[in-house]
Amino acid sequence: MEFCLSMAKKSLKEIDDSAPDTLTSRKVKRKAAKAKEQRQQDGGDDTMSRVALLCQEMCWRDAVLLCRKAHAQAMADGKEDTAMSLSMALQKIERSLRRQMAASYIAAAKDMLQKEYLLDVGQ
């Protein structure tokens, strides 16, 4: 009994220390799994809902590719309304993709500079 209580206290303490990160990652994973499951169920769903699901999953590249493909198809079919809505969505999605790429670049640069600083201090 004493062993179980000590383990429970330990696990509660570990959960309290990492609660924000753990909960956030759990929520993101759960949301992505739910969106993926919904996407699989809605096999014949329209393009805009698939693009929206990809955006919710933060798959910006896939969303841009799908949106561009659908825009080209709509232009070829002569569906101007669909093509216009897709082009407006495409602008916003591309901006999000560029923002994600810039954030990744900045994070990589910070890591590189941190390593450089450690090397300089060591000498």
Quick summary:
This protein is 89% helix and 0% strand.
Compute the number of strand runs.
0
* Oligomerization state: single chain
Shape: elongated
Mean pLDDT: 77
Low-confidence stretches: 3-19
Total helix count? 5
Query: What level of helicity do the residues show?
Result: over 70%
Radius of gyration (CA) equals: 22 Å
In terms of DSSP E residues, the strand content is under 5%
Order of helices and strands: HHHHH
Give the class from helix and strand content and strand pairing: mainly alpha
- How would you characterize the largest beta sheet? none
Distance between the termini: 55 Å
Region (Disordered): 16-47
Tags for this model:
123 residues; mainly alpha; 0% strand; elongated; disordered N terminus
Chain-wise SSE layout:
Blueprint: H1 2-17, H2 19-41, H3 47-56, H4 60-77, H5 80-122
Helix pairs in contact: 2-3, 3-4, 4-5
How would you describe this structure to a colleague?
It is built from 5 helices and no strands. It is mainly α. Helix 2 (19-41) packs antiparallel against helix 3, helix 3 (47-56) runs antiparallel to helix 4 (60-77) and helix 4 runs antiparallel to helix 5 (80-122). The N and C termini lie far apart (55 Å).
